[in-house]
Amino acid sequence: MNGDASRRMFLKSVGVLAGAAVAGSTASAASAAPSALNDSKKFAPRFGLASYTTRKLTLDQTIALVKRLNLTCLTLKDMHLPMNVPLEATAQTAQKVRNAGLDLYGGGVIYMNSEVEVNRAFDYAKAAGFRLIVGVPRHELLDYVEDKIKTYNIAVAIHNHGPEDRLYPTVQSAYTRLEDRDKRFGLCIDIGHTQRSGIRPADDILQFHDRMLDIHFKDVSAPTRRGSTVEIGRGVIDIPAALEALRHVGYQGIASYEYEKDADDPLPGLAESVGYVNGVITMMNRNK
Amino acid sequence: MNGDASRRMFLKSVGVLAGAAVAGSTASAASAAPSALNDSKKFAPRFGLASYTTRKLTLDQTIALVKRLNLTCLTLKDMHLPMNVPLEATAQTAQKVRNAGLDLYGGGVIYMNSEVEVNRAFDYAKAAGFRLIVGVPRHELLDYVEDKIKTYNIAVAIHNHGPEDRLYPTVQSAYTRLEDRDKRFGLCIDIGHTQRSGIRPADDILQFHDRMLDIHFKDVSAPTRRGSTVEIGRGVIDIPAALEALRHVGYQGIASYEYEKDADDPLPGLAESVGYVNGVITMMNRNK
Fold first, then answer.
1. Which residues of chain A have pLDDT under 70?
2. Which residues of A touch B (CB under 8 A)?
3. CA B198 to chain centre
4. For residue A233, which residues of chain B lie inside 8 Å, CB to CB?
């Protein structure tokens, strides 16, 4: 079994890929080498929401919004699933989301600045039934986090936060620190911050997909640190190229929309974004 | 000058095409004969809103919604531009819409069941500065309406209303009554009602485009009379085929979204629809 096959088996076993049919073949390395293998299949990624989008809405409003948009997956930020309550309450709230029919697959972004915070994050994630933590661990805690991943069998996806960020300004800055680590220690590629760092999201996906466990899907107004989130299709990201890259690498995970604009009323802009992506995907499958 | 060239000159002169660059060539007949002439250009139709969508919202709310979606054109239904007020008030309200930066190009659907109603419709349209009335004239009034079109130089686009309708169930049922009439007497193809009649919207566009002056753009849940409006992309209409037909025939008019679902809160579903169409068009232009 080669490395990619074993990683797929793991991802399936821990449930990061739960509900997805694992592709018969994926690109075999983090390269942009052309391959028609995955490009000939119907492309139907699963989409979710990163609930920072609805940070001014309640959890109930968030659930209703996700369902109205026909999204099926969700990661919760702590304003919707507080970290300062008993773990029993965390479990109950998570169950409420699942009772609504949504795949609550993870949470975050969770910052990890100390071993205490790492411990708390994993206990919280376990109580919530997360398969994945979208995290930002300090560099000196990476070994400690890796041990926790093995103990809890919960994946951690490091989130790139753009050119201002000290720890992980780019996907590559996280990727290089993950070499030889457990395969459950990977990346949440935030394509907005990628573009704000001057990098084409499609290139990050093609280059680093072997560690890609989650995606924050969005568009931004400029390919610089001055860029901010806009409705997908109105910004500068080459969305078709990003989606084609996901198809090309046979991505089997979830892509979660994160729409930071219009915090008081995010649904219309998010709906426009979802529609745009659905339109592009319709054409990708049509053009086969 | 052939018939098509003269029609384009007229359409430009009455302003139905105001703001559009008239294509150097359009398909020369109402046929589906393939032609690469228009298919090689960047496809960038103008989009508007048919305000029946926002029938439970005020005019101010409608203007805000249209601008939020980056739409530029508008046709008003009478709940937003009342017909039972002095014409000076009609003109003032229309000016308010234009002051907001929108192309208020027409109104309707307006039913015309008597000469008195035809007279009223044209006086109202003139006061509002419409270039176009989306209308449903009784068959015996077609000559009278045609005279009015000539006198007022305001176009009338007959709207197909689906299999239940006695007067114009299909586009063809209107088209056949327009033969040899003034070229300003044409069609508003409602692609939802077309599909509800069991006809592919792309086929209606290809077959009847020489009389096409306006479009109601939407999706429906079923290709039968039981179909109702849904978010574009969630229904049964082949939206890429409809847009490709518009490109193929070199349509220079406006396509107005009409989203009848969610009357109390139409923005999210309409936004999803707009996003979907934008995504498809992005791919149409990308694949050139």
1. 1-40, 287-288
2. 68-70, 231-234, 239-240, 267-269, 271-284, 286-287
3. 20
4. 275, 278-279, 282
Of B113, B112, B167, the residue nearest B122 (C-alpha): B112
Query: Chain B contacts of A286, Cβ < 8 Å?
Result: 240
Nearest to B83 by CA among B130, B142, B128: B128
- The DSSP secondary-structure symbol of A76 reads E
At B128-146, the pLDDT tens digits run 999 999 999 999 999 999 9
Q: Mark A47-74 as b/e (b = at least 16 C-beta within 10 Å).
A: bbbbbbbbeebebeebbebbebbebbbb
pLDDT computed for residue A41 by the predictor = 74
For residue A207, what are its two tokens?
């280059």
| pLDDT tens, residue by residue, A28-51 | 333 333 444 555 678 999 999 999
The rounded distance, in Å, linking the Cα atoms of B209 and A58 is: 49
Closest CA to A101 of A157, A19, A10, A44: A19
How many angstroms away from the CA of B186 is the closest CA of chain A?
30
Between the CA of residue A58 and those of A121, B6, B118, B145, B214, what are the distances in Å?
A: 22, 59, 52, 55, 42
Judge: A275–B69 Cβ closer than 8 Å, yes or no: no
- Residues B46 and B19 sit within 8 Å (Cβ to Cβ): yes
Q: What are the beta bridge partners of residue A175?
A: none
Report which DSSP code applies to A40.
T
Would you put residue B153 in left (φ > 0), alpha (ψ -120 to 50) or beta? left
Superfamily of chain region A3-286: Divalent-metal-dependent TIM barrel enzymes (3.20.20.150)
Interface pTM, i.e. ipTM: 0.87
Q: Which two tokens stand for residue B219?
A: 């999706």
Structure tokens that stand for B205 in this block:
């566009």
How far does the CA of residue A63 sit from the closest CA of chain B (Å)? 15
Report d(CA B59, CA B79) in Å as an integer.
8
B194-197: Cβ within 8 A, 24+ apart:
B194/B160, B194/B170, B195/B220, B195/B223, B195/B227, B195/B236, B195/B237, B196/B162, B196/B163, B196/B220, B196/B222, B196/B223, B196/B224, B196/B225, B196/B227, B197/B160, B197/B162, B197/B163, B197/B169, B197/B170, B197/B225
Taking alpha carbons only, the member of A16, A27, A30 closest to residue A184 is A16
The residue ranges of every structural domain in chain B are: 3-286
State the nearest Cα–Cα gap between A268 and chain B, in angstroms. Answer: 5
Closest C-alpha to B246, from B13, B60, B15, B27: B27
Cis before A171 (ω within 30)? no
Smallest CA-to-CA distance from A274 within B144, B261, B234 is with B234
Banded pLDDT at B18 (limits 50, 70, 90): very low
* Mean per-residue pLDDT over chain A, rounded: 89
